[in-house]
Amino acid sequence: MNILLELFVVTFRVLWAFVLAAAKWLVRPKEKSVAGQVCLITGAGSGLGRLFALEFARRRALLVLWDINTQSNEETAGMVRHIYRELAEAAPKVAGDGEKDVLPHCSLQVYTYTCDVGKRENVYTTAERVRKEVGEVSVLVNNAGVVSGHHLLECPDELIERTMMVNCHAHFWTTKAFLPKMLEMNHGHIVTVASSLGLFSTAGVEDYCASKFGAVGFHESLSHELKAAEKDGIKTTLVCPYLVDTGMFRGCRIRKEIEPFLPPLKPEYCVKQAMRAILTDQPMICTPRLMYMVTFMKSILPFEAVVCMYRFLGADKCMYPFIAQRKQATNNNEAKNGI
């Protein structure tokens, strides 16, 4: 009898979850404040990482930027400082209006660290420096990513390992470094920037797809673990964008007749959508929304039906032009260096 009662309760909660999800479509949830909170972003030197840094800076978060490239990371920090100065200049007006509580400009700082997230000890050492020099991290954005751009049998083992280390294993190291304090305080937010290729795959990028599937699996398991521990103060958001026009996959093409309806995403649009999800504690965001449908269809259709759809869309070999360009660029560099 108890199990029947529990089944009824579970059914009600599932239906209620659908109602709440529908309500969020109709009424936009209020965005939470991250002002004054320490936000750490990996891969902050370029692409989406840089744009995330600028968006969090506009919301008066205290930024900690990690990247393997010191120069590009410092360039991002310069942009963040410019935003902080603009906020400081606007602060007297806002304070005079009495509409918002404004943090003093001196509390807005950006810290940069050169870190190779693919190396476990480098992550732990840098994380310890952050705790000593900045404080405990409240928002962790695991964004750093790489792609080898080789067919499986042409890809050196070292590049496969590198892709897995940066795109997947690094999430374990950064989370293990900063999650304990979040658990102690029951407060924090962990963001996993994955990819639509972590939900469904395509040919020619086996290492990249595997790493992103791994990141998605890690994120989902972590989310369940936090729920099981009843740590509702720690939020998680999984970001799975379609192809983003950052140059990472330059040359990637789907069928030309379809491409106008599904063009590469503008990085700014992708990050704004992700920020909206993060600040409203949305568990997952796929951009564009069509990616939800693709993921659902992949789950219910026979494999051969999925293959037919891929071929119709030109998605089965969409990475081949990108791989060819990478191979040509590698050959040109070797020729220049006299190899």
Automatic annotation (TrEMBL):
<comment type="pathway">
    <text>Cofactor metabolism; retinol metabolism.</text>
</comment>
<dbReference type="InterPro" id="IPR020904">
    <property type="entry name" value="Sc_DH/Rdtase_CS"/>
</dbReference>
<protein>
    <recommendedName>
        <fullName>NADP-retinol dehydrogenase</fullName>
        <ecNumber>1.1.1.300</ecNumber>
    </recommendedName>
</protein>
<keyword id="KW-0735">Signal-anchor</keyword>
<dbReference type="GO" id="GO:0005811">
    <property type="term" value="C:lipid droplet"/>
</dbReference>
<dbReference type="Pfam" id="PF00106">
    <property type="entry name" value="adh_short"/>
</dbReference>
<dbReference type="InterPro" id="IPR002347">
    <property type="entry name" value="SDR_fam"/>
</dbReference>
<keyword id="KW-0521">NADP</keyword>
<keyword id="KW-0560">Oxidoreductase</keyword>
<keyword id="KW-0492">Microsome</keyword>
<dbReference type="GO" id="GO:0052650">
    <property type="term" value="F:all-trans-retinol dehydrogenase (NADP+) activity"/>
</dbReference>
<dbReference type="InterPro" id="IPR036291">
    <property type="entry name" value="NAD(P)-bd_dom_sf"/>
</dbReference>
<keyword id="KW-1133">Transmembrane helix</keyword>
<keyword id="KW-0472">Membrane</keyword>
<keyword id="KW-0256">Endoplasmic reticulum</keyword>
<dbReference type="GO" id="GO:0005789">
    <property type="term" value="C:endoplasmic reticulum membrane"/>
</dbReference>
<keyword id="KW-0812">Transmembrane</keyword>
<comment type="similarity">
    <text>Belongs to the short-chain dehydrogenases/reductases (SDR) family.</text>
</comment>
